[in-house]
## 1
Amino acid sequence: MTEKFDLNTWLKTYRDAFAPAQRAQAEGFKAFERFARHQYAVAGDYLEFSLHAAKVALAAKTGDDFAAAQRELGSEFSTKLQKHAAELATIATETQSSLTGVFAEAADSVVAPVRKKAA
């Protein structure tokens, strides 16, 4: 006796098997996009700082004016970098928790049927 080959069942099996990997990949791409946008913002702040520093260097009349302007620019830039560092820590924490959830779901999807068969 020959069994019929059910393509839908076969596709569902493979879809279910690769769903955790696909979800992990999607989460990874989302994290990469957030990280890239963050780095783009940091690069923009560096560019802005260097342009302002050049303007200050050309516009300063005395050394005291130059030093005061550089101190102010450095202070503003330091504040921006601290903010970006906090944002990066937030991105890393959220990405870690998201991927931990994905891997936990993947493990549960593998372990649950095995436990069900064992019981």
Note: Residues 37-97 form one domain.
## 2
Amino acid sequence: MDMARLNRLNISLEERMPAKQKPKKLVPNKLLRRFIESKPCVICKKDQRSGVMAAHHLKTRGAGGVDENNLIPLHWFGCHTYAHTKGVDSLSEELGVDLREYAIQLTKEFNSL
């Protein structure tokens, strides 16, 4: 909402959204993403040598997901689409791996470098 409209409504920006409640800007961590993309796909086990890898968000950025503790490596063609059709919980069950815990482990590994 622009300032002119706020003024017409006689509502200040501070009243509408106090500073402590402003949403955080999601800043991608490009180094973390590259690190995740260097790992083998959790589904097909292929790595960068066999195609494009993607750092897949378990909780989407649109839903408030951040990069830290939220990324898993997926082979871009096929596996990434498959993960979207299955969902996190179903895919975790199918693979026998807690994907959320795996994402946390990968972030810890990255942070220890």
Note: The chain has a mean pLDDT of 82.
## 3
Amino acid sequence: MAGSDKGRDTVRLTMKGKRGLPDKELVRGLSSLGFNRIDSSKEPALWLVESETMDGKPHAYASFIFRKGAIDAIYSITPEMNRKLRRISMARLCLDVLALSKFSGDAGTLYSEIARTLDDATEFADTNYLLLKNRCEQLSSDNLKLAAKNRELLSAGEKNSRILLEAEKMNSALKERVRALESLSDESLREELLDWLKAHGGEINAAEFAKLHGLTPARVEEGLDMLMKRGEIARER
């Protein structure tokens, strides 16, 4: 039987029969199930209160009332709960209560509830399986794409590394060449400049000379300045 209260459904199951535990041993016998409220003013009642309303009333809860000839199981299904999961967990709790209270009698009501719960569990499991299967396939597809992208990046990285290595080698060679040219002795430069001037009628293009001899223009200017200071050449006026 189910009722409704402000969007919260209440399910009540009545199982006719007798419990083997007397009232005094009942609470101790069911203590492992986590009940947090006890009401023994009339008929023993155990409550598992999971949440409360603003005025302190149980909102999400399960309770068991132990009457002389029956056990009433009452639980709520709140809007924020998954109904199927709630029914499954409550069916399990009912079975635990019956076992620990040493119940004997007609549990047909519970069996019907369990049958419906098993249907819910099967449907829920099938739904979850499909969701997990689709998610797994999606993740597998994403993984293949990422693996391909990773291979592209590794290939590009290797290519860039080779390019960088070649550039470093060329740069190193150029630095060595510059050092070699800059280390040309003054006397060698003097001879090269004098030979050039003789071959070109006393004229020189510093940029051209520097290019042909692998020198910097600044180094050529230094050589010409050296020759003028020694009086070996003079600038035409």
Note: The longest helix spans residues 108-182.
## 4
Amino acid sequence: MNKGLKKPKIYLAGGIQGLSYADANAWRLKVTELLKPEIETINPLTKENMIIKLLWEGKGMPKKESSIESYPPWACNYIVWKDLKEIKSSSGILVYLPKNVQRPYFGTSMEIFYTSYVLKRPVFVFGDSKNRSPWINSFCIALTDTMEEAVTLIKGVLL
């Protein structure tokens, strides 16, 4: 798919809201190392997105669980705009949907739909390959249980 023109990029989608910055970022840092040097990752929690980190650090916001009610409207607009821009610049997305999740993944679901249906780019999901919504199954080209399996598939498709 890449044909040697540009290094492929994968946007790292998955839970953020309701998680600590460290918890939301841990899997992203690990998968970045697994994909190097052939594939570049786009991490929505990098220094370019300091606004999100500032929200977690309590700069006028709750220090623990962040909720959409705590975000000023301009911050919500910025987060969505930045995510869509980064997804559009990617070759596809990798999504982490862990087992037994007890909270919604509204943003992640929107990112999956946008990438697959609108941009017609591949979506790879890992975490729990069973008991997925028909919507998740329909818009993903691969669902695996482990990060390592997903990385192997991404490399096979994009390189």
Note: The chain has a mean pLDDT of 83.
